[in-house]
Amino acid sequence: MRRTIFDLDVLRTFATGMELGNFARAADRLGRSTSAVSAQLKKLEEQAGTPIFRKAGRGLALTDAGETMLAYARRLLELNDEAAAAVQSMELEGWVRLGLQEDFGETLLPDVLGRFARAHPKVRIEARVVRNIELIERVTTGKLDLALTWSEGTLTPHCDKIADVPMRWIGPAEEAVGWNPGSGEPVPLASLEAPCLLRTAATKALDAAGIAWRLAFVSPSLGGLWAATAAGLGITIRTPIGLPRKVKPLLAKEAGLPELPSLGLVLHRAEAEPGPAAARLASIMLQSVGEAVADVVPQAVRSAARAYA
């Protein structure tokens, strides 16, 4: 049986075109002609031995094989880029101070730290998982080098907006919430302690819709919030990223709740030009976050990662 060896250059064109939603844009970004890109995509289908694309109206969509190919292409390119960075920066040393919102502490941090430590074992990382207001204060005063936060529009002098992530009403996966639409009773809310961007968004949306609410549970930590929501003590509001299995997003109309806006996701830097270690960690952060939000926000911004590569 002939062994198939995929061309990484072809995979990069494929992945870039899917990220941008247009292969003409991919050709422009990669400095190639559209005919060269078409030839590469044809080569990819030949190597795969099965159709990657199918007709969808006037454009193209991925087949099931294409979806699988895209997932593997991103993994192969990520490993290739990580290997290149590791070989080229073996002597990278220093200390990086990183801050994250709680939503990403358990889901994103282990992957980011693992990837970075394997490539740069001599760099020391201090990670802090705290609330938004503290992250912003620490990065603007230079106590953190990088901070990943939610944003309702407030930006710091040096930051990269990654995506606008939709907020969702969250309820228990199995238990029933002790509230019914149209009952006239206030909506029971489970919330983090104030100040909290998502708590404010929830109460504003309910007030605008003329729906009464009450604080049924207040927690200083995200773990406590998940426990209360899973037990049916109240409905909360978060994004769909990093949800534990014991809770689930609710359909606003079916739950008798108002639609919610999106929330910005931003990587802040203490300096306009971070040092080599902080720049490399920022690149890995942006790649990992892009993957985390890909299912929630199609075509999430990933180009910022290239600025740190």
What does this structure look like?
The protein is 41% helix and 22% strand. With 309 residues, it is an alpha/beta fold. It has 3 domains: 8-88, Winged helix-like DNA-binding domain superfamily/Winged helix DNA-binding domain (Arc Repressor Mutant, subunit A), CATH 1.10.10.10; 94-164 and 263-301, Periplasmic binding protein-like II (D-Maltodextrin-Binding Protein, domain 2), CATH 3.40.190.10; 168-260, D-Maltodextrin-Binding Protein, domain 2 (3-Layer(aba) Sandwich). The protein has a 5-stranded mixed β-sheet, with helices on both faces. The protein has a 3-stranded antiparallel β-sheet with strand order 10-7-11. A two-stranded antiparallel sheet has the order 1-2. The chain is globular. The two termini are 38 Å apart. Mean pLDDT is 84; it is low at 299-309. GO terms for molecular function: DNA binding; DNA-binding transcription factor activity. InterPro entries: LTTR, LysR_HTH_N, LysR_subst-bd, WH-like_DNA-bd_sf, WH_DNA-bd_sf. This is HTH-type transcriptional regulator pecT Pectinase gene transcriptional regulator. Keywords: DNA-binding, Transcription, Transcription regulation.
